[in-house]
Design brief:
Chain lengths: 227, 248
């Protein structure tokens, strides 16, 4: 029985790995762009707005963005198919102490992923949708003033907290996801497996801290430091 | 020592099972877990009850027949150990011990703690062999193999097929078992020749048997009595991708 659609368990996991790694690559670019928000306010505004303009106008970036949307959707749908199948095949125990043999975040990638997806809904609504379809004010250079929107968004402490907590969910997701992707793609040489593990851990820390620090920094600059 | 046991009793595959309470006195710490079960069964037989059925064979930790979920852990509290090699000195007087069968959709329960692991046999039948004409034993050094190659292949071949990897996996994936069998043969020149075909048909059989996806939690390696490395899974994934792409 099963396997009617022709995709094997291994193919589904390969697809998870490929889309996941593309999203990992995207996060690096996204973080590097966002770090401009940490510049002094005037410089940050000019720099960030012109950067946003550059991204939205470029045809190459447009193509990449479609790959990005596709990756997010495929990653989620594939995860759903995998999880539903796993729920069906899994054994259930009256007393279950299997947890000692693995990390909690490796067993809860679906829940962490769902948290990230919920975050993405708000993230897209507040910035992506605003920039693409909302009516944004223009800055002095005539660019859409996304910078002001971003600064305004991080005025509420609960919104900042929501971002920081979401970044922790992302961090744990990456901590398992990065090296798990390498495993699914078939990296079996012990030396490079340990390298990937170290690299993946460092990567996860940098992405988590990098993204979490931005809303916190903006909130603090607005409310505490130079009020 | 005295133990309070809660053991899964189920009369056949079709019927509902439940945990049944037993008290067992005079357990000697030097007993193996299976000897403790034997002692319980002796008492049950004397009382005229049906003994608890469980799988076992060599009781030396090498056959892979025994396997129980003890207090929610495959083969009990010690990592990398079969149930028969677990001794009662690992438990304390007055302990309550939960004993359940290995559970997975692909491992239907036959009775009590006895499960049907023939899905593993069918995965082996799908490709876990090399095609050679039998006859006289070939010259041992006819095909040169380095010591490292032989050791590495043997590390994979050490899998005893007990099913602890499936039982401890939250998805009941058979990736560790299947990949160990695939890697064992792929690492040797005799097996290399058929490796493309082998990986495709063994993985297909694994999926057809309704094992889950491997999500790389690596719990299997921790519970595996033979410490089969999860890198075998990586090798299987690699072999599978290459073979799928190059398939004619």
């Amino acid at each position: 029985m099963d396997n009617k659609n022709g995709a094997s368990t291994l193919m589904r996991k390969t697809l998870m790995a490929l889309t996941g790694l593309f999203l990992c690559f995207f996060l690096v670019i996204h973080l590097l762009g966002n770090l401009q928000l940490l510049l002094p306010a005037e410089q940050a505004k000019v720099s960030f707005n012109s950067y946003s303009q550059l991204l939205s106008g470029n045809i190459f970036i447009k193509i990449i963005s479609y790959v990005l949307y596709a990756s997010i959707i495929i990653h989620c749908l594939d995860a759903l198919v995998i999880t539903l199948k796993n729920k069906k095949t899994a054994g259930k125990y009256a007393v279950d102490n299997r947890g000692r043999a693995s990390k909690w975040y490796s067993r809860n990638m679906g829940i962490l992923g769902t948290l990230i997806l919920i975050f993405l809904v708000f993230h897209f609504k507040d910035f992506w949708y605003q920039y693409k379809f909302g009516s944004l004010p223009k800055d002095e250079s005539g660019h859409k003033d996304l910078y002001t929107i971003v600064i305004a968004a991080y005025q509420d402490w609960w919104y900042v907290l929501f971002y920081v907590l979401s970044m922790f969910a992302l961090g744990y997701h990456l901590l398992h996801g990065f090296y798990s992707a390498a495993r699914s793609l078939g990296l079996y040489h012990p030396k490079y497996v340990s390298w990937v593990r170290v690299f993946g851990t460092g990567y996860s820390y940098i992405i988590t801290i990098g993204f979490a620090i931005i809303p916190v920094y903006i909130y603090l600059t607005q409310h505490v430091l130079w009020n | 020592m005295k133990l309070y046991l809660k053991i899964w009793r189920q009369s056949d595959a079709a019927s509902e099972g439940k945990l049944v309470d037993y008290e067992l006195d005079n357990v000697i710490p030097h007993m193996s877990f299976l000897e403790m079960m034997d002692t319980l069964n002796e008492q049950l037989v004397l009382k005229g009850d049906r003994p608890v059925e469980f799988d076992h064979d060599c009781r030396e930790g090498i056959c892979g027949q025994c396997g129980m979920m003890i207090n929610g852990q495959a083969h009990g509290p010690i990592a990398n150990l079969t149930t028969c090699q677990l001794h009662m000195r690992e438990f304390k007087d007055g302990d309550t011990i939960y004993v359940e069968p290995f559970r997975a959709l692909a491992f239907p329960i036959k009775r009590d703690l006895r499960v049907d692991r023939s899905a593993f046999d069918r995965i082996i039948m799908a490709g876990g062999f090399v095609s050679v004409n039998t006859g006289q034993a070939p010259e041992a050094n006819g095909i040169p193999i380095t010591h490292e190659q032989a050791e590495s292949a043997f590390d994979s071949a050490a899998c005893i097929g007990c099913g602890a990897c499936v039982a401890t996996c939250k998805n009941s994936s058979a990736a560790l078992f299947t990949s160990a069998k695939i890697s064992h043969l792929a690492k040797l020149p005799q097996g290399k020749m058929e490796s493309r075909k082998r990986v495709l048909s063994m993985v297909k059989q694994m999926d057809d048997e309704n094992f889950g996806h491997c999500t790389n939690t690596e719990a299997c390696e921790v519970e595996c009595p033979q410490q089969i490395s999860v890198l075998n899974i990586a090798r299987m994934n690699w072999e599978y991708s290459i073979s799928s792409v190059l398939k004619k």
